[in-house]
Structure formats: C-alpha cells, structure tokens
Amino acid sequence: MNAVVAEGFVTGSIVFDALDRSGVAATLDEPDAGYQLLVLAALTSSWRKLLVFYQLSGVTGALGRTRGYLHENALGYWWAIRHRSAAGEPTSSDLPTVVEIDPADLRYQSRFGKAQFPTKDGDTTRSPVHAEPIVGVVGGRWDRFRTEWIETRIHRSLEARFRDGESWEATAKYRYAACKIENGLEDWRSSTPEELERRCADLDALYESMAGEGHVPQDELLERADDGMETGGAAMKSILGGEFPHEMRVGIGRDGEIIRFSAGKHRLSIARLLGLEAVPVVVVRHERWATVRERFAAADSLEELPAEYREFADHPDLRAVTDDLSRVSE
After folding, report:
1. Long-range contact set of residues 164-171: C-beta below 8 Å, sequence gap at least 24
2. Domain of 324, in residue numbers
3. Has residue 317 been placed in a domain?
4. Quick one: 133 and 73 in the same domain?
5. Residue 45 CA to chain centroid, in angstroms?
6. DSSP string spanning 217-260?
7. Per the domain annotation, does 32 fall within a domain?
8. Comparing 136 with 76, which gets the higher pLDDT?
C-alpha cells in the first residue's frame, strides 16, 4: 500500500480530510485504484465505530454490527465504482425535479451513504469515487439497496419522543450520538454534549413549528429573518451548479417506490407523525420508472395505457401528467 495512503488511513484522513480525491487516485496504480479506494474507504475510522458499537451492544453486538457496517460500505462502494464506470457525464437535462409527496408514501431509506451516492455537489468532496453528483435517470440496482424507513434509528427515536413522550436521553438516536461524541466522533450535528442538547432543543422547536404551520418549504423559510433553528436551518444547495432548495432528496425506484437518500429526515418523520399530507422532495429516477413516465406523457388518455401502467395513475411523480390525461378523458 502506498505510504501516503497508509498514513491517511491510520489518521482517518483518507480521501476526505487531508487529501483530495485526485491526490489519492494519483498514488494508486490503475486499474486497481477504485477497488483499493473501496477497501480503504470502507475501513476508515471503523475502529472508533467498533468502540461505539461495543459500548452500546457488548462484544457480540459490536462484532455483528461492525461486520454489517463494513459489508454495507463495501457493497455501496462496489456499486458506486461500477456506476462511475458505466455512467456518462451529467448534463443540464439531468437536473432534478421538485415534486410533492405524501410522507406516508415514503417507505424506504437508501443504504447508500453520501460518498457512495452523492445527490448534491457538496457530497462529491466526501467521495473517493464520484466527481459529479448522481442526478437524473439512473439504471442498475440502486433502488434495491434499501431499508424500511420506519425501522431507522432516527424515525424510531422521533416516534418515541413525540408520540410516546419519552425523554431524548431514552431514545436510541440520542444514546448513539452521545456514545459517538464520547469517542471523539461527530454525530447529529454535534461534537460536544452541549451541542447535542441544543440539537434536541431545536428538534423540539421544529415539531412545535410544524404542528402549528405544517411543512414550510425551504425557499419560504429563507425569506424569513430567523427560521428558529440553531443547529441546522434552511438552505439552498448546489446540484450541477444550479441552486435547489435543501429539501429531502429521494429516488423513485423501478416500481415507483419512493426511497429517501438524504436531507429532511427529521421533517419527514415529524410530518408522518403529525399526519401532514404533503412535503416537497427533489428526485432521481430509475430508468425503468422513467419509461413509465414517458408512456404516460405520450398517451392521449389513461384508457390507452396497459393495465400495469394505469395502477400508477395516482403516483405523485405522475400527477401533472395524469391530471392532463383526466381532463382529456372528460
């Protein structure tokens, strides 16, 4: 292993902190550079995560969770490297679309991290694989690499806090974040116990705000002098050089399933708990789903579409098209 890369691995700075992606790539011999980066990126800082898992779950739990963590990271980077090899350069036509969905319709969380599946320009600085964000229409099995949203640590914790009335300290997310902070890691926008307490206070305020006002879009929040958040507020983010509101970014899988990648996780869970009916999202689409959209756009009426396509007529990503088709049918 190259000495520069080895030093970056030991210090936890590999690729993302002390070195830039091109610098690391230059120290590795092609064509094996991508796969060496895969292994290094999957292992970076794992020893500190092992400590966290041990403190939370004991020896058996730590070994199992660390094995799962490394396995998922290796699979994620393997997919990312294959996608990088197959994908062309993104163009302006790939820019994402902002649509509204019912929070209850979002069933899944992607298992990809930001470095494996970057959805905005800033994420690529953390990736040893991608120089551009993944946008537009994307093929492959990325939509199968997912877990149930309601089973995620963040959703279970917000549910315990706001539905069941538990203290933050009793929630899984708080315990996990506190343990990481104790071991010198950052989590939940916090690197100290004091910052963690402020984070929890912000989320209490967010819940109260959404209970009173519903979901307020990021661009509207930016027009206000103060959005009430100390540890993370409204923002615009760059995607292929264009500015987009920092709403939840989701992918729509081959069968129309809605899969969250990043951003907006607290707003999503709170919206579900409050029974809100619509939240804005920025989308990436699977190539098979893009074919469904194209068929709807080309149809003169719903009746001429095959039955297996008509079942998607109420899908939020097809709303504009199906509204037009309904008016034509009338």
Report:
1. 168/200
2. 299-330
3. yes
4. yes
5. 21
6. PHHHHHTSS--S-SSS---EEEETTEEEE--EEEEE-TTS-EEE
7. no
8. 136
In a domain, 326, yes or no: yes
Look at strands 242-245 and 146-148 and give their pairing.
unpaired
**Could you write out the DSSP letters of every residue in 246-257?**
--EEEEE-TTS-
| Count of C-beta atoms within a 10 Å radius of residue 285 | 24
Q: Are strands 258-262 and 106-110 parallel, antiparallel or unpaired?
A: parallel
Alpha-carbon gap, residue 290 to 256, rounded angstroms: 10
Number of domains in the chain: 2
Bridge partners for 99 per DSSP: 281
Same domain, 207 and 325: no
Residues with Cβ within 8 Å of 311's Cβ and at least 6 positions away in sequence, in order, are: none
Which bin fits 200, alpha (ψ -120 to 50), beta or left (φ > 0)? alpha
For 116, the token pair is 């494996």
Q: Is there a single domain that holds both residue 303 and residue 269?
A: no
Residues 319 and 219 in one domain: no
Please check whether residues 304 and 183 belong to one and the same domain. Answer: no
Are 77 and 209 in a shared domain?
A: yes
**How many other β-carbons are positioned within 10 Å of the β-carbon of residue 154?**
18
DSSP string, 265-287: HHHHHHHHHHT---EEEEEEEEH
Mean predicted confidence (pLDDT) in 207-219: 92
Alpha-carbon gap, residue 34 to 73, rounded angstroms: 14
Instruction: With respect to residue 52, please indicate whether it lies within any of the assigned structural domains.
Output: yes
0.85 exceeded by pTM: no
pLDDT digits (tens, 9 = 90+) for 75-122: 666 777 666 655 555 555 567 888 999 999 999 999 888 888 889 999
Asked if residue 303 and residue 226 are part of one domain, the reply reads no
pLDDT band at residue 6 under the 50/70/90 scheme: very low
- 245 has which bridge partners? 236
Same domain, 114 and 206: yes
Three-state DSSP class for residue 187: strand
- DSSP labels, 95-124: --EEEEE-GGGEEEEES--TTTS--SGGGG
CA 4 – CA 28 distance, rounded (Å) = 10
8 A C-beta contact, residue 278 and residue 100: yes
